[in-house]
Amino acid sequence: MKTLLPILLAAFVVAGSAFAQDRPAVTAQANTVFAGADGKFEANPDTAFMQFNISAQAETSRAAYDQASKSAEQVRQILRANGIEPKSTEIGFFSLQPVYDYKTAKRKLVGYRVNANVSLKLKDFSKIAPIIQQLADSDVSESQTISYTLDDMDAAKTKAVEDAYRRARESATAVARASGRTLGDLSYASVDTFESPRLMAPAPRMMAMKMDGGAPAPTEEFTPQTITITAHVNAMFTLR
C-alpha cells in the first residue's frame, strides 16, 4: 500500500493546483500530505452605511454658503431627533464651485454651488426610514445611498478560515486513511480570505419596516441577502 502514496500525493497536488493556480506552490515531502480547501462564513449584516449629500446653489458664493449652512443645521436637527449625535457622522468632502451657463459662445457665470458629502453608520436599522423621509421632506439632500456590512469583519474572516481548515483536514485525513496511514501534525499552512462588497440590499429588520399609512414595506416577505466571507487554506500534514 505504501507504494501508492507518491501517486496519491502527486494526484492531490495536481488537483489542488487546478483551482488554486494563484496560490503558493508547495513541494511534496516524504511522509506528508498536502490539501487545499475553501470555506465560508455567512451572516446577516449588522451595520448600515448611509451616505447623502448637502447641496445648495445661489447667485453669490456667500448666499450659497449660507444656504448650505442652513441645510447642514437641518441635518443636525434630524439626527438629534432620531437619537444620533452629529459628531458620529463624517464629512467626506466640501466644495464651493462657480456655476457657468455654456449656452452662448462666451460662458456666463450664473451662480455658485456648495456640495458636501455626509456618511453615517447605524446599528439600529429602524432609524433608517425616518431619517431618509425627513431628509426628503426638508429638501436638503439630492441623493441618498445605503449599504450594509458586518462591523466585526475580522471575526467573520476567522470563522471562514476555521471552516476552510476543517475541510482541508478532512480531505487530508481521507487520503491518509486510503493509504493505510494516520494523519499527523500540521507542518505548513497558507491562508487567503475574501470578503463580499457592501450590500445594497435591505437588511433583515428593514423587512418589517413600514412607512406611514401601514402599507407593506417593498422588501416584505423577501429573504435578505447575507454577507459572505470566503477563505482558502492550503495545509500540509505529516503522515504516521
Main sheet attributes: strand count, strand direction, barrel closure:
4 strands, antiparallel
Q: Order of strands across the biggest sheet?
A: 3-4-2-5
The total tally of domains equals: 2
Taken in chain order, the helices and strands follow as HEEHEEHEHEE
CATH class of the largest domain: Alpha Beta
What is the overall number of helices?
Answer: 4
Work out the helicity level.
25-40%
Query: How far is the first residue's CA from the last residue's CA?
Result: 14 Å
Share of residues in strands: 25-35%
Q: What is the CATH architecture term of the largest domain?
A: 2-Layer Sandwich
Give the tally of β-strands: 7
Anisotropy-based shape: elongated
Taking all Cα atoms into account, the compactness measure Rg is: 28 Å
Structural classification: alpha+beta
Q: In the CATH hierarchy, what is the superfamily of the largest domain?
A: Protein of unknown function (DUF541), domain 1
Mean pLDDT: 82
Low-pLDDT stretches are 1-21, 201-211
Q: What brief labels describe this structure?
A:
four-stranded antiparallel sheet, alpha+beta, 2 domains, Translation Initiation Factor IF3, disordered N terminus, three-stranded antiparallel sheet, 4 helices, 240 residues, Alpha-Beta Plaits
